[in-house]
Write a structure and sequence with these properties.
The chain has 388 residues and is an alpha/beta fold. The protein folds into two domains: 239 residues, Type I PLP-dependent aspartate aminotransferase-like (Major domain) (Aspartate Aminotransferase, domain 2, 3-Layer(aba) Sandwich); 134 residues, Alpha-Beta Complex (Aspartate Aminotransferase, domain 1). Helix content is 39%, strand content 15%. A seven-stranded mixed sheet has the order 1-11-10-7-6-2-3, sandwiched between helices. A hairpin with a 2-residue loop joins β8 and β9. α10 packs parallel to α13. The protein starts with 13 loop residues before the first helix and ends with a helix. The structure holds pyridoxal-5'-phosphate. Pyridoxal-5'-phosphate (PLP) binds next to α3 and α4.
Length: 388
């Protein structure tokens, strides 16, 4: 049963296919000139001096933490309403994840006051997520981080092309990480980018990406180097030329894609926000915030069974999701979870992610909105019956 409206979808066309086949025919497939072009163009979009392409967004977060000096005995603070990748790589760096709460139904980004409360003597870094592509209040985050001498890493996986006060997401902190997974705003399949303005950090990231080796196969192929040294214990987190060729095409479409997403979100908001007790978060953000609109999320009214709503939508062949089951409630993190996170725990039961991708049409948005409103109405009737 194919979805009538899938949660996310990629557009396939001749230009994208041609970029890949042309790269295959060059005979050079591993990191080379296309990766270098992509890094140059991406740095412009991110507003940073350096951009290093990596195998995926999780690899970007892993080497960002290591480059920032995070290691055994350290703590790293991050919101629990988040994808699990950041918490996993904090553990792989030998550190401990400490979770903070979100602001509320209107703002699913981290709560700066609770972030400040979560920082302790062992906190080395914090990872600020731009939830759904909506810029996190980085001014508040940096004010806290500076006072407590904590390194700020941006998880900008949702936020390529987003900005705050004219500053692109990814340019507001020491290091930032992006993902090119298929359902992200710059879809390639697998891929990612880590960006920084700092020359020394960029050099560490470059070494960590490729075994700690001082030269690349590409440099040796071109006769620019004959030998190499290994100066730290790195990984193979490189991106290949095929994905870089796709990413170059997708990068040029990023702005138009984000704007199309924004138009669909505005349509959803008009149909749903404040109707039947539904809240569509981020309706009242800073006027100088530009979102990349990665996700269309609604918060259902209290008492309505989310699973019943999801089933009703699935029945109409509309795919939905939940971003995210909180990290601190997963089995492997349950023991780490000491801080109360009441807003995260309440909202985690009520958030629902609706279909969103640039090439969906208005009829699809209306179909989703109509079906959602119908099922929420039915759910509220059930909720008030059982309360009576
Ligand atoms: C997608 C995502 C990642 C991980 O990126 P991958 O490229 O899938 O490894 C990390 N953090 C967040 C918030 C994400 O959405």
């Amino acid at each position: 049963m194919p979805w009538r409206v899938p949660l996310s979808d990629v557009a396939v066309d001749d230009e994208l296919v041609a970029a890949v086949t042309e790269t295959v025919s060059t005979g050079w497939w591993s990191m080379g000139p296309r990766v270098a072009d992509l890094e140059r163009e991406f740095a412009e979009v991110a507003g940073t001096k350096h951009a290093l392409a990596v195998a995926n967004g999780t690899a970007a977060l892993h080497i960002a933490l290591l480059a920032a000096g995070v290691g055994p005995g350290d703590e790293v603070v991050l919101p629990s309403l988040n994808f699990v990748a950041a918490a996993n790589v904090i553990a792989h760096a030998g550190a401990r994840a400490v979770f903070c709460d979100v602001s509320g139904a209107e703002d699913l980004n981290l709560d700066p006051d609770d972030l400040a409360a979560a920082i302790g003597p062992k906190t080395k870094a914090l990872i600020a997520l731009h939830y759904g592509g909506h810029p996190c209040d980085m001014d508040a985050v940096h004010e806290i981080a500076e006072r407590r001498s904590v390194t700020v890493i941006e998880d900008a996986a949702h936020a390529p092309g987003a900005s705050l006060g004219g500053r692109p997401c990814g340019s507001m902190s020491k290091i930032a990480c992006f993902s090119f997974f298929s359902n992200k705003n710059l879809p390639v399949g697998e891929g990612g980018m880590v960006v920084t303005d700092d020359d020394e950090l960029a050099e560490r990231l470059r070494l960590l990406r490729s075994h700690g080796m001082t030269t690349l196969t590409w440099d040796r192929h071109r006769g620019h180097a004959h030998s190499y040294d290994v100066v730290l214990k790195g990984f193979n987190y490189r991106l290949d030329e095929l994905r870089a060729a796709m990413a170059l095409v997708q990068l040029r479409r990023l702005r138009a894609g984000n704007e199309a997403r924004g138009a669909h979100v505005a349509h959803y908001r008009e149909r749903l926000d404040g109707v039947e007790g539904i809240v569509m978060p981020f309706g009242d953000t800073r006027p100088d915030a530009v979102s990349s609109h990665h996700l269309a999320v609604v918060v259902l009214p209290e008492g309505v069974e989310r699973d019943a709503v999801r089933s009703a939508l699935a029945e109409a062949r509309i795919q939905t999701s939940v971003h995210y089951p909180p990290i601190h409630e997963f089995t492997t993190y349950a023991d780490d979870s000491e801080r109360p996170l009441p807003r995260t725990e309440d909202l985690a039961l009520r958030i629902l992610t609706l279909p969103l991708y640039p090439h969906m049409d208005d009829e699809q948005v209306d179909l989703v909105a109509d079906t959602l409103l119908q099922s929420v109405r039915a759910g509220r009737a059930v909720a008030s019956d059982s309360a009576a």
